[in-house]
Design brief:
Length: about 280
Amino acid sequence: MDRALEELASHYAFAWTTAGDAIRRLRMFGIQSRATLEDLHTPAAIRQRISAAPSHSYLGDAVLGAIDGCVTTFAVVSGVAGASFPHGVTVIIVLGLANLLADGFSMAVGNYLGTQTDRQIVERTRRMEEMHIDVVPEAEREEIRQIFAVKGFEGRLLEEIVEVITRDRQRWIDTMVTDEWGLQLETPVPWKAALTTFVAFALAGAVPLMPFLLPLAWTTDQMFVASTVATAVTFLAVGTVKGFIVKHSPAYSSVETLLVGGAAAALAYGVGFGLRTWFGVE
């Protein structure tokens, strides 16, 4: 083990329980040694990272879409299985495909409208700050002054910062948007976020239906068992990917996703079985 990495982990162990846990967390962030961390923070590496055009990752949209698609579709399968409907396979296919398209489209539209609203808020704030700079420039300079005074700058250095920022109108507006209003300048492209969500929802949501769609000489119960196993594997896989994305324990994230999805399926199965018993459906 890299001695320097061990020392670095010991430094952070107060927040991560043990030095061993801290080492695992550091490696999860791609830090295999102290030298790796130092290589990522050379002047050239920092310059390249900061100067690169910011881009939004749509992996989060994909993960959320996949989890929702798998959970809701398997809930439909479980509910029908619990109710033991006549022609259950046909009912599962019809309701499952309807859910796959309608709920997937609904989720995608919701994501589209949400990201579009975020963009509109940023644009509205930019226009408002631009108007403020035109009408009350000295007041806007004072806002910049106070923003950076809160950060600990003072005296001549503070005045130089105010001068540098307000000299460039674009930089001035960007600073007001991010530091005064707490908004992100770069937001997801609405149609990309929506499409990513829908595709992930449809792909993961199709997994619970596959045993019922394939030409297999199985009973309905056997198809349900196969659907359960396939869905559980999908939950674990999606949870693992989510863990890597958010830099969290993949094992914990996968089990958490499995439990959440399993709870939804169990609830749907229980409701279907309970209603069948209540109404005396044979």
